[in-house]
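Long-time lurker, finally posting.

We've been working with Glycoside hydrolase (Niastella koreensis) and I want a structural starting point before designing mutants. I don't trust myself to interpret raw outputs, so I'm hoping someone here can both generate the structure tokens and explain anything notable. Sequence follows.
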Amino acid sequence: MAVAGVAHPPAGGGSPSPAHHIEPLQPLKVSPNGRYFMTADGKPFFWLGDTDWLLFSKLKREEAIKLLDDRRQKGFNVIQVMLVHIVKEVNAYGDTAVSKGNVSKPIITPGDNPDDAAQYDYWDHVDFVVKAAAERGIYVAMVPVWGSVVKEGHVSPAQAKQYAAFLADRYKSQTNVIWMNGGDIKGSDSIAVWKTIGYTLHQKDPGHLITFHPRGRTTSSIWFHNEPWLQFNVFQSGHRRYSQDTSKGDLHFGEDNWKYVAMDYVKKPVKPTFDAEPSYEEIPQGLHDSLEKRWSAADVRRYAYWSVFAGACGYTYGDNAVMQMHRPNDKDANYGVFNTWYEAMLAPGSGQMQYIKNLMLSRSYFDRVPDQSLIAGEAGVKYNRILATRGNNYALFYTCNGRNFSVQLNKLAGKNIKASWYSPRDGKYTEIGTFENKGVHEFDAPGDVKEGNDWVLVLDF
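Top reply, 14 upvotes:
Generated this for you. Predicted structure of Glycoside hydrolase:
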């Protein structure tokens, strides 16, 4: 219900048109080899996501348009947003999502007139954002209900089934929707609810892809890889540096997010996987101590290239203020946030993410595989780690600090090799030269060996 006295957005019948024409989106598909996404007509789709968790609840229409326009211009093609974050979810216009905290009872008013509070509800606002995103070539990965709400006992399997059926019915005809079950939680916690949501969405909305967003330093494949409703895996590598990772067992990976990809990559049946929540730009390392060093643009680039070169089908970026849509005077500020969402929207890392998408789409796509055997000698550990990937007529190598490394050229096809350096900071190439394809060759990246001096060695043959 809308709260009396809260202004609703001006009429206009829809969102402002994007700056240029964008073809209507169709639901995404998994590629025939099970590794990647593709469009309905078979073209490669590299998932470049932005973490906008509280967009539906905290941004007004014109603010949502501002964010979507910025993200489109920066090359993002997916936004990750949660539908119900807390039991008493209320949006920027005072509209409540569900009745008395019961997700099986969404509050729906007749009509969707933005000038009439009695006709414009929480779900009309969600509809507006989803359609506005589609007009800008952006898919919306929606989390039905955040993990903490379920963990606290507010959602039974019966309520989950009814709620998921409502969502499926409302959005099955909206072509840019992706379902992201879960929400920062272990799948083993309230697993009956998560399976119910997954099965119900898959049964009633088979045209849209579904995954599960897990707790930090875990992957959806741990609990749901063999579930028919889970069509791709995502992991949350988390926000801790090496020394802060106290995880037990096999997933003591620290900052090595490429290890999650490697773990999922060998599972059967083959399913796409990627980092849906790495460390956010401008957030304290470890999250909870605002005096800690903050994750930087260099860090989010490193997480992107490490995971993608290990075989991931995309990457989701995040910023501290943007993910929580922080506004001046917010009482629910978290994680030492120091700026607003619209200031943080301009953080350097967000503008640099497009370059990994551009690089991956510039060459043959579905034939790409990770291949560490191309590296001569040790691949290195932690920040010295070199990650390698190749396609039929190219090979790519990433160094996050610009250290020297050697390549076994004799493992590549072709008589001659054309080499160049690609900058993750601005997407520009620097030619090295063309030489005969034989033996082992050492490459020396531009600049000194230091944090943030990251480069991609590009070999075309």
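Before you design anything, note these points.
The mean pLDDT is 95.
The chain has 13 helices and 23 strands.
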